[in-house]
Amino acid sequence: MDRLSLFSSPLFLGFDHFERLVDSLSKAQEDSYPPYNIEQIGECGFRITLALAGFRKENIQISQENNQLTIKGKQEANPNAVYVYRGIASRQFAKTFVLADGVEVKSADFDNGLLHLNLLRKRNEGNVRIIEIASAPISKTQQIEDCSSITKI
Fold first, then answer.
1. pLDDT tens digits, the chain, 153 residues: what are they?
2. How far apart are CA 113 and CA 63, in angstroms?
3. Could you tell me if residue 20 is inside a domain?
4. What's the domain range around 113?
């Protein structure tokens, strides 16, 4: 059985990537570890701060693919330690944030167990493109075969 969604409407033709973004965002919010804050800094800046106590800078990886920012960490336990009580688990995590168009990561720093990611939202000037109407009708059998031939509007 197919799942119905807001984006299955014919009015949202070509917006299937938004549905994938919403799905990935909902899956990303299922795990609350590690805790994080998102602050607005100035008019166009943001800062994401993750609490990563016990992690070292070398155990953290930050990557951005398209609009998806991913922070991964792997904490290694001391194999020679003998615990009487173990309340601090060594664990790994992957935290994903979906960034809006025009938001880019400017810098990252790690200090006292806190990872700070500084983001900047570029101002969008709003592109307007006039689309001319052809005088001769286009054949109904003519199709666009390759998405790379389409220019963004």
1. 455 566 566 666 666 666 666 666 565 555 678 999 999 998 889 999 999 988 999 999 999 998 899 999 998 778 888 889 987 777 889 999 989 888 889 999 999 999 999 999 887 666 777 878 777 766 655 545 555 555 554
2. 19
3. no
4. 32-123
Q: Which CATH number characterizes residue 96's domain?
A: 2.60.40.790
Residue 88 forms part of a structural domain: yes
Q: Which two tokens stand for residue 150?
A: 């389409």
Residue 129 inside a domain? The answer is no
Q: Is residue 133 part of a domain?
A: no
* C-beta neighbour count of 114 within 10 angstroms: 14
**How many structural domains comprise the chain?**
1
**Residues 69 and 105: beta-carbon distance below 8 Å:** yes
Question: How many whole angstroms separate alpha carbon 55 and alpha carbon 59?
Answer: 6
pTM for the model stands at 0.62
Block residue for tokens 């109407």: 133
